[in-house]
Amino acid sequence: MEEANKIAQHLLKKRLVACVNIIDPVHSHYLWPPKKGRIEEAQEAVLLCHTLESKYKDIEKEVLKIHSYTNPALYAIPVSHVSKKYHDWIVGELR
């Protein structure tokens, strides 16, 4: 949770996101290291960042600078609908 909070605060201070939801713990099962086929398990956190598509590259750059993983899962999920008032709030908070 400490790393998740650090990343959330960093992105908020840089105004790349308007809000971050942290879901912790998440129990992850994954293949690691690459091409070795070993199944690993870990307790992790998921951060849902409320932002705009145009901020993705900047967010990715910042997270990669401070995340402890060499290959953190970073991806954007398209949102098909959002209320105008909420969207306007997000736009107003970002730089």
Automatic annotation (TrEMBL):
<dbReference type="InterPro" id="IPR015867">
    <property type="entry name" value="N-reg_PII/ATP_PRibTrfase_C"/>
</dbReference>
<dbReference type="InterPro" id="IPR004323">
    <property type="entry name" value="Ion_tolerance_CutA"/>
</dbReference>
<protein>
    <recommendedName>
        <fullName>Cation tolerance protein CutA</fullName>
    </recommendedName>
</protein>
<dbReference type="GO" id="GO:0005507">
    <property type="term" value="F:copper ion binding"/>
</dbReference>
<comment type="similarity">
    <text>Belongs to the CutA family.</text>
</comment>
<dbReference type="Pfam" id="PF03091">
    <property type="entry name" value="CutA1"/>
</dbReference>
<dbReference type="InterPro" id="IPR011322">
    <property type="entry name" value="N-reg_PII-like_a/b"/>
</dbReference>
<dbReference type="GO" id="GO:0010038">
    <property type="term" value="P:response to metal ion"/>
</dbReference>
